[in-house]
Every structure is written in structure tokens, then in C-alpha cells.
Design brief:
This protein has helices spanning 16-25, 29-42, 53-60, 69-81, 87-90, 109-120, 126-130, 144-151, 166-186, 192-207, 214-237, 241-257, 261-277, 281-291, 295-298, 302-318, 322-337, 354-367, 371-384, 390-406, 410-424, 431-448, 453-469. It is mainly alpha-helical and 470 residues long. Among the domains are: 16-90; 98-148 and 163-259, no CATH class; 387-470.
Length: 470
């Protein structure tokens, strides 16, 4: 975890930048370590998850950390200070620059697809993205000129030999539906490699093919963008946040190349969701605001507009804008109420219903401090969700239990969390749902010494489950 450069302690220069940021954060060494290790675990960088207070002391003293440690510390401090902190601001250089390679908005989407595929499908090279940290610095949405340039049809090249027609677009769309259903049933930890393989082999070749007209080209890029989005969402659901971020960025570039504004909004909304879950409230609001801007909202179907609006409401609530959040929720409810059955949704990975609206509304109310109303909405979501959405059902149970115990309902929460474990033991592979089990044990911790039977039984069951799946 340290880079040895042959310097003695006397020769090292104290890292005043890092010391100043830790002081600004108001952290003791123990608090800094706890925040660092939390990010390391979330990023699946377990080699860094056992960092101790002595590491922080040595870094402040001038020792340079190695590997992903600078990026982990950047994210921990970014969350605490509510602004993006870079390795340079810490006094470190990082091997994982936020603008490097697959996190570059300026790179051509086909180049990004090739680079990302070569890393994700190669076991050794995948360590690069698997060992990187989610980058808040890469979330800045480009200006209007970028979107206009991306939407311009590319110049045809002689190398495009394969003819790609409407049937090929339909095939990609149908397989995306199948993969998406699998994700909803089993979670993002099941089958993502198959999605990635198809995206980078068959679909990658289609994108480089010869199209009969401009509409087929745009439709193929839209289909590819949605498949890339699905790969990103699956990685996000499985807590592979750095991998997910790279696929979200690829997806939004493919959708922009297709000039598909509603799909761009759909993907920006998902990026906002991820940023919010990881504690980047300001960046999340910027992304969700971009998702409801112009044709991204106006050209979307009523169901799509409702989903965009409710995630925007969550971002507003997380940034303390309660009245604006309430207005955004009301608009989302009205949008969903205006949706008609039988209307074909253009995006195959798109599922939004009253149950989903209730789930997101509950998250908004929870973040606004209204736990009682949030509990009602979580219950409504659970009561009305169909059996096809087992993964989301498990996540909602986890959130409901956490809100109930925060509101003083310990035994209520235990009953809810028992249902979560029932769902997980039926074969759901979801990092978000698994995190809910970790959170359950943490929230139950203050009650263990009281020897409450429901708590003791549930905690033992959760510990047994985590032992089996780790």
C-alpha cells in the first residue's frame, strides 16, 4: 500500500495538502480510516479495506500510497466535503485519472466500446477497471455543442463491409429484453458476462457495418446504447460501481450518436441514481436536471417522464430543496397517471409502474426526513409490485426495514427484513440487496445487548447468510 522510494523519514516532506483537507473534514485518524475502508469495500477493493490509522499518519507524513488508495481517499473526502477532490489536491498523483480511457467523454463511442470490451472480457486487464474507483470528476455533463457534434452522422468508410438491416436491430432489441428480464428476476450479479460478450462481439460488429439508411443506423446505435445501459445497470446493482460508470458513459455516448434524446435522459437518470446512492448529492442533481432538460423529457413517453421526474425529485430532496422535490413528485405522479395501457414503450429495459413510483417516492420522502410517509410508500410499493421484479422487491424490503428501525419500529423492521432474507435465499444475486443485509446487521447492532428474541434470531440468520455467500 506504500510506494518505497528509498527516502528516510527525515527526507520526506509533510503532505500539507492532505493534512489541511483532513482538518477541513473534521476527521480524526480513526474517522478517516473508517470512511476510507467504507469506500474500499463498496468499490470491491478488498486489498485496501484493512487500512489502519498508521497509514493515514504516514501519508500525512509524506509517504506516497500506491494502487487505488489515492482514488479511494479522494472519494471519501469528496463525500464528506460535498465537492470533488482530486489526487492532485491531496498531493498525490493517481494511476486512475478520471479522464483516462473509457471515462473520457471526448473519445469516440466505438473506440470506447473496443477499449472497454478488451478490458472487461480479459481476466488480467479487467483488474484495471475492477480495481479503479468511481469517479465524481467524470460526471460533469458536456455542453450543448458536444451533443450536437455527437448527433451528426459519421462519414461512411470503405471498411464497413457487413450489411446491417432492420432484422439485425430487432434481434438486438429482443435479446436486450431477454437479458433485462433475467436481471429483474435474479439481479445484476447473474449473467452480466453474457450481456458484455454479446455487446462487444456481435453488436460491436453491427455498429461498424453498412446501413441501408440513416434511420436504421440510428436505431442500431439506440439498441446498442440500451444494451450498454443494461450492462451498466447490472454492474451497478452488483456494486461494481467503477465498471458501471464506464458502461453508463459508453451508453450515453451511443445514445447521443443515435440522436435519441429520451434514451439519453433515461441513462443520465440512471447515472444520477448511482451518484446519489454513493453520496454524491450535488453531482446527482446536476445529472438528473440534465435528464429532464428539453427533448429528453418532452419527447419521452408519460411513463418515462415519470421516472425521470421522480429521480430528479430525489436529487432535489438530497440537496435540501424540499419544496422543489414535492413539486417534482407531483409532476411525476401526474405523468404516470396520464400513461395509457397498451402504449408501446420505446426502450426495452424500461419498467415503470405505480410500484416503482411508490419506491422512488418513498426514497424522496425518507431523504426529506418524513419517515412515516416513506414507510407508507415503501409498503405500497411492496404490495403492488409484480412477481417479475424479485430483485427490486428485495431492495425495497431492505430500505423499508432500515426506515422502520430508524423510526423506532424494531420488531416491525425485523419482520420486514425476514422477508428480505427469504427473497435473497431464493437465488437473487444483487450487490444492492446484499448491502441491505450488511446494513441490517449494522442497524441491529445497538439492540443485540437487549437480547430481544426477534433481533437475535434475525441477526444470526443474516450472519449465516453472509457467511454462505461471501
Amino acid at each position: 500500500m506504500f510506494e518505497r522510494r528509498g527516502l528516510t523519514m527525515a527526507e520526506r516532506r509533510r503532505n500539507e495538502r492532505l493534512a489541511a483537507l483532513l482538518e477541513e473534514a473534521g476527521w480524526s485518524r480513526a474517522q478517516a480510516v473508517a470512511a476510507f475502508n467504507r469506500v474500499a469495500v463498496e468499490s470491491n477493493l478488498l486489498d485496501h479495506a484493512s487500512t489502519g490509522r498508521s497509514h493515514i499518519t504516514m501519508w500525512v507524513g509524506g509517504t506516497r500510497p500506491s494502487g487505488a488508495a489515492p482514488d479511494i481517499l479522494c472519494q471519501a473526502l469528496s463525500r464528506r466535503l460535498k465537492r470533488t477532490i482530486t489526487p492532485e489536491q491531496l498531493g498525490f498523483a493517481s494511476p486512475h485519472s478520471p479522464r483516462q480511457g473509457t471515462l473520457d467523454w471526448e473519445a469516440d463511442p466505438l473506440v470506447s466500446l473496443t477499449d472497454l470490451g478488451s478490458m472487461d472480457l480479459d481476466a488480467d486487464r479487467r483488474k484495471f477497471i475492477g480495481g479503479a474507483v468511481y469517479s465524481a470528476a467524470a460526471l460533469a455533463v458536456p455542453g450543448e455543442q458536444w451533443w450536437q457534434e455527437m448527433a451528426r452522422p459519421p462519414q461512411p468508410t470503405p471498411s464497413r463491409q457487413q450489411h446491417v438491416g432492420r432484422a439485425d436491430v430487432t434481434m438486438v432489441e429482443e435479446l436486450t429484453v431477454a437479458f433485462s428480464r433475467m436481471d429483474q428476476q435474479r439481479g445484476g450479479g447473474h449473467g452480466r458476462k453474457a450481456v458484455v460478450q454479446y455487446l462487444h462481439s456481435d453488436v460491436g460488429q453491427f455498429l461498424r457495418g453498412r446501413f441501408p439508411d440513416e434511420q436504421v443506423r440510428r436505431d442500431m446505435f439506440s439498441a446498442a446504447g440500451e444494451l450498454a445501459y443494461l450492462s451498466a445497470w447490472m454492474a451497478f446493482d452488483n456494486a461494481e460501481h467503477s465498471v458501471a460508470q464506464r458502461y453508463f458513459l459508453l451508453a450515453v455516448k451511443l445514445a447521443a450518436r443515435a440522436d435519441n434524446s429520451p434514451l439519453v435522459g433515461h441513462i443520465l437518470r440512471a447515472m444520477a441514481h448511482q451518484a446519489l446512492d454513493l453520496g454524491f448529492a450535488k453531482e446527482s442533481l446536476e445529472l438528473s436536471s440534465a435528464s429532464v432538460r428539453g427533448q429528453r423529457y418532452l419527447a419521452a413517453t408519460p411513463r418515462e417522464r415519470a421516472l425521470l421526474g421522480v429521480v430528479h425529485a430525489r436529487g432535489l430532496a438530497a440537496n435540501g430543496q424540499k419544496q422543489a422535490a414535492a413539486r417534482a413528485l407531483l409532476r411525476a405522479e401526474n405523468d404516470l397517471a396520464s400513461a395509457r395501457d397498451g402504449v408501446r414503450e420505446p426502450h426495452r429495459t424500461f419498467f415503470f409502474s405505480g410500484a416503482a413510483l411508490a419506491h422512488e417516492t418513498a426514497c424522496t420522502l425518507r431523504d426529506s426526513g418524513d419517515r412515516a410517509a416513506a414507510i407508507q410508500q415503501f409498503r405500497r410499493s411492496i404490495r403492488t409490485r409484480g412477481a417479475a421484479f424479485r430483485r427490486t422487491h428485495a431492495v425495497t424490503l431492505g430500505y423499508l426495514g432500515a426506515t422502520q428501525i430508524s423510526n423506532g419500529g424494531v420488531e416491525e423492521a425485523c419482520a420486514t427484513w425476514s422477508g428480505l432474507l427469504d427473497a435473497m435465499e431464493e437465488g437473487i444475486y444483487s450487490g444492492r440487496a446484499k448491502q441491505a443485509v450488511f446494513d441490517m446487521r449494522r442497524l441491529l447492532s445497538p439492540y443485540r445487548r437487549r437480547k430481544i428474541p426477534a433481533v437475535m434470531e434475525l441477526d444470526a440468520r443474516a450472519a449465516s447468510y453472509l457467511t454462505r455467500v461471501d
